[in-house]
């Protein structure tokens, strides 16, 4: 089954990072979430209760990304995946990608970040 719901390019300002400059100045984080969900029932019923409400998922991600600062993107991604998986039993798997477009690292790049995939048990 290859059905997915995705939220791409969500942007949040936060103060996460292991470097003190990141904690003081902050930066924009770009978050992409893809959830593996059986969408066949919602496709037949046309009812939002038969799917995962992506507006609610956005608010979940926003609360975590704009909440208390942490050191690692890995920790943020894990929290997002865990919260989605624990809240939505329809979700079979959650992929979370978090990108820092402008970290305080000398060099030229489009971004640095992490991507995790967590199954919902």
UniProtKB/TrEMBL annotation:
Keywords: Folate biosynthesis, Lyase
UniProt pathway: Cofactor biosynthesis; tetrahydrofolate biosynthesis; 2-amino-4-hydroxy-6-hydroxymethyl-7,8-dihydropteridine diphosphate from 7,8-dihydroneopterin triphosphate: step 3/4
Pfam families (alphabetical): FolB
EC number per UniProt: 4.1.2.25
Reaction catalyzed: 7,8-dihydroneopterin = 6-hydroxymethyl-7,8-dihydropterin + glycolaldehyde; 7,8-dihydroneopterin = 7,8-dihydromonapterin
Keyword rRNA-binding: no
Record's GO cellular component terms: cytoplasm
Keyword Acyltransferase listed: no
Transmembrane segments: none
Example GO biological process: folic acid biosynthetic process
Entries under InterPro entries matching the protein: Dihydroneopterin_aldolase (IPR006156), FolB_dom (IPR006157), GTP-CH-I_C/QueF (IPR043133)
Domain Dihydroneopterin aldolase/epimerase: 5-118
Molecular function (Gene Ontology), one example: dihydroneopterin aldolase activity
Function: Catalyzes the conversion of 7,8-dihydroneopterin to 6-hydroxymethyl-7,8-dihydropterin. Can also catalyze the epimerization of carbon 2' of dihydroneopterin to dihydromonapterin.
Binding partners and assembly: Homooctamer. Four molecules assemble into a ring, and two rings come together to give a cylinder with a hole of at least 13 a diameter.
Family designation: Belongs to the DHNA family.
Stored PANTHER family: DIHYDRONEOPTERIN ALDOLASE 1-RELATED
Protein name in the entry: 7,8-dihydroneopterin aldolase
Natural source organism: Staphylococcus caeli
Gene behind this protein: folB
